[in-house]
Amino acid sequence: MTGAHVTLHFGLGMLLAMFITASRLRSDWTTEAHRSRSLGRWLLIAYLGGIYAAAPNLMYGIGVPESICNGWWMNIFLLHPLIDGVKPGGMLIGQFLLATAYLFQYVVALSALKNTPQDSP
Length: 121
What we know:
- Helix 1 (3-31) packs parallel to helix 6 and helix 2 runs antiparallel to helix 6 (91-114).
- This protein has one domain.
- By secondary structure, the chain is mainly α.
- The N and C termini lie far apart (57 Å).
- The chain has helices spanning 3-31, 35-53, 55-61, 66-69, 80-86, 91-114.
- It contains 6 helices and no strands.
- The longest helix is centred in the N-terminal third of the chain and has 29 residues, at 3-31.
């Protein structure tokens, strides 16, 4: 297991979690005046999704044998071994996925700032 795999899986997990929870974020923004709470929750879920997807790499990093970390049962972590078998490496794809996730988060945060009602003095 290499660092490239961690980047690939973390990026996939983040994007998947962001897109799954994006509809909830949008519905919260149309009904709530305070967008920061829903934005913070959305970002937290995105990062937790990335950590969840990269869990077999993290377990390998703390000393769990590779035979356990690459077993078929690790497919519960967003198809981790299946993706490793299809796409060895993944450094550039992983960096692209992470950059896409960060860019999407940045655009959403700027949109939240732009659309937040300002207090009049």
